[in-house]
Write a structure and sequence with these properties.
The chain is an alpha+beta fold and 520 residues long. Helix content is 36%, strand content 24%.
Length: 520
């Protein structure tokens, strides 16, 4: 009762604690208490009244994020959550930097099973900042008191409303307080647990394998010392990876190739003198100077580059619920590109049956440790898995992403469209009708020839060539990042099939159709 009075007092007065203050932290903790009650009484009831406020802000380093082609349109990836409108008393408020074209909204609403687009549209409020600048969306919202007030007016009952965000930082915490609505996610005070450095410590605590290396580094000199120490320990080591603590999609990483120099007392001096020649950032537009400037600010790690004749890059997606129970919701084999396989391109679901069950077991260990540290919500753990001589697989945990990621929206689309569930005990996804489903997904389908294709053009092409998702067969293609298509020639695909081969065939056909339709 006291927390409710406090919250109502603040929201009525429209006066809030200073961002980052102890008073804000206290109020945020009070608001978060509502989350457990909602989880117990609202989340499991499909006919419960609720309001979900979706803030798809990529609240990351803007200078690094700006190097990603069409980054502003990544806010569209969470449009998969419009599928929540399949529950007839659920309201959704979705806020973006710039307006989402109505044809894209209509595309998602017409995928809803058992609900008409008209019925869903009445329960959907789309709001925009009309601001295409590089500032985080959440900052844009906080800078607009009238927009904040509009959001509040559409939240009829804060006791049954919650915020869901791409990632949670102090900005999202402030937004939660000013809206008096809880966040389904980890308190940003625990940000370190999801950083590259914090992740390595958690892996050790759990007894999970990880690449040898060093964390909590901040300077160029720290990096040189770490590289030298690894070379001394492994004289045959050829490559190492340098990672910022808070990188995104591999763009906070750099590769280091060891020069042919003696492993002697002068090793540090040799490596320092040749660092620029041997050091290469993954993001082509990020200079060495900018990299180390960001590395100094946020910290980072150095670890060995894992070699293996046969190796994969799988991930495990988990949800820590407000009651601290853990769900292993999916596993994926990640598709990585770039010169050294450091850039996330897409995913195959589920992960290979040869190791998906053992992978989930390792993920559960890490999720259990994070739950004990106070983490909550949806997150992922990335691994490098190396096939051993006895044909078993050894999984090395490489990073924790305490946020949504590139594998979140494809899986949620599959789950919402089929009402199915992933079974971590055998690595299979089973639909409500008892059938297995698989998908092949990519965030980075890119071709300069696609530039100029509007969202309407894409929908027309998809319908003409029967690329749309078919609710009867529960197979087909879903598009996302559609807003990036005309300007950047870039979009995303989720191709669902009854077999892995069928899913890949749908993906190949979609590319074939797009290439043919956009050919000059």
């Amino acid at each position: 009762m006291n927390s409710l009075i406090t919250r109502k007092t603040f929201i009525k007065s429209n006066h809030f604690p200073e961002p980052g203050s102890d008073a804000e932290r206290t109020l945020f903790n009070d608001i978060q208490q509502v989350m457990k009650k909602q989880y117990e009484q609202v989340f499991s009831d499909k006919l419960a009244e609720r309001t979900v406020v979706i803030i798809p802000s990529l609240t990351l380093d803007m200078e690094i994020l700006s190097k990603i082609k069409g980054a502003l349109h990544y806010e569209e990836r969470m449009l998969c959550l419009l599928m929540l409108l399949r529950m007839p008393l659920t309201k959704v408020i979705y806020v973006t930097s710039v307006p989402v074209p109505e044809v894209i909204i209509d595309y998602y609403l017409n995928l809803l099973p058992g609900i008409t687009g008209h019925h869903a549209r009445k329960r959907l409020t789309m709001l925009s900042c009309y601001d295409s600048s590089v500032k985080p969306l959440t900052q844009k919202i906080l800078d607009r008191p009238r927009l904040l007030q509009t959001i509040k007016e559409h939240i009829h009952n804060p006791e049954t409303a919650h915020l869901t965000c791409y990632n949670i930082t102090p900005l999202e915490k402030t937004l939660s307080v000013q809206l008096s609505v809880p966040l389904f996610g980890t308190d940003p005070d625990k940000f370190y647990e999801g950083s590259k450095s914090g992740g390595r410590k958690t892996f050790r605590e759990c007894g999970v394998d990880l690449p040898d290396g060093f964390e909590d580094l901040h300077t160029r000199e720290d990096v040189v010392r770490a590289l030298a120490a690894l070379k001394r320990k492994y004289p045959g080591l050829r490559k190492a990876v340098v990672k910022m603590n808070d990188g995104f999609s591999g763009d906070g990483n750099a590769m280091y190739r060891y020069p042919d120099v003696p492993v002697d007392d002068q090793l540090e001096q040799h490596l320092a003198a040749t660092l620029s020649q041997q050091f290469k950032t993954v993001a082509k537009d990020v200079s060495e100077e900018l990299f180390f400037e960001k590395f100094h600010d946020m910290g980072g790690i150095v670890e060995v580059f894992l070699d293996g004749e046969i190796k994969m890059s799988p991930s495990v997606q988990c949800v820590i619920n407000p009651d601290k129970n853990i769900d292993i919701v999916s596993t994926h084999d990640q598709l990585l590109g770039g010169d050294d396989g450091q850039i996330f391109l897409g995913a195959i679901f589920p992960a290979d049956e040869a190791y998906s069950v053992s992978l989930a077991t390792e993920g559960k260990k890490i999720a259990t440790a994070l739950a004990a540290k106070g983490a909550m919500g949806r997150f992922a753990v990335d691994f490098i898995s190396v096939k051993q001589d006895d044909s078993s697989w050894r999984h090395y945990a490489i990073e924790i992403n305490l946020r949504k990621g590139g594998t979140t929206h494809p899986f949620l689309m599959l789950q919402f469209l089929t009402d199915g569930k992933y079974q971590s005990n055998d690595g299979a996804f089973i639909t409500a009708s008892g059938n297995k489903r698989f998908y092949f997904a990519s965030d980075n389908v890119s071709n300069d020839n696609y530039k100029g294709l509007t969202p309407s053009d894409l929908i027309d092409i998809a319908m003409f060539h029967s690329l749309m998702f078919d609710g009867a067969t529960q197979e087909g293609v879903m598009f996302h990042l559609v807003g990036a298509l005309s300007e950047f020639g870039k979009l995303g695909l989720v191709c669902i099939g009854s077999t892995p081969e069928r899913a890949k065939a749908l993906y190949d056909r979609a590319l074939e159709v797009l290439d043919a339709e956009s050919a000059g």
